[in-house]
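# nightly structure sweep
# worker-07 picked up a monomer target from the shared queue
# config: single-sequence mode, recycle default, output format = structure tokens
# input follows
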Amino acid sequence: MKRYIIYFIGVVILATGLTLNTKAGLGVSPIISVPFSISEIFDLNFGNLTLVLYSGFIITEMILHKKDKRLRLLDLLQLPFSLIFTRFLNLFTYIIPDFNEYSILLRLFALFLAIVLTGIGAATMLNMNLIPNPGDGIVQAIATKIQKNIGFTKNCVDFISLCTTIFIGLCFAHSVVGVGLGTVLAMIGVGRVISVYQFAYDKMSSFHT
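# output follows
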């Protein structure tokens, strides 16, 4: 039961971090840049668009895992996760204010906090070894299929996401939407936060055993 509670806390922290990332107004992380840019350009619901993206990831994972029933079941469990997670995105989008009108220092602080929360949330969920975030699940599924390491595959998925976001922005808004300094810092920073958190988690685990 404890694992499920900690996992749920990780989900909430991750949703808070990703939402705060969009509110800082400095560019969002690559994996959510596509739904964010579409939501900004066409004034659509960000959480619902993220659910559509995650559903696409899950379908792709199930195709890649067609020979493994256990993995396909795990993929299917990502659907209810995605529904709950994106409802939190909608909730926090409503609660957290936009920082566009504030000073650059406050926006940078919001971005820093967003990166830290995103990393902690992702690492917390990962350590509980339950249902993966579809954004992580698709990377792992592709990495296994093409027999490349997760780091390389993650970079490729991020690159494709950014190119798609830039293309959408240039085509429909005649400008780049959702990509900026925050995008670069998120790409670098979230991984570092996860590494530091994982190091501390492993140390604490070894101390208690």
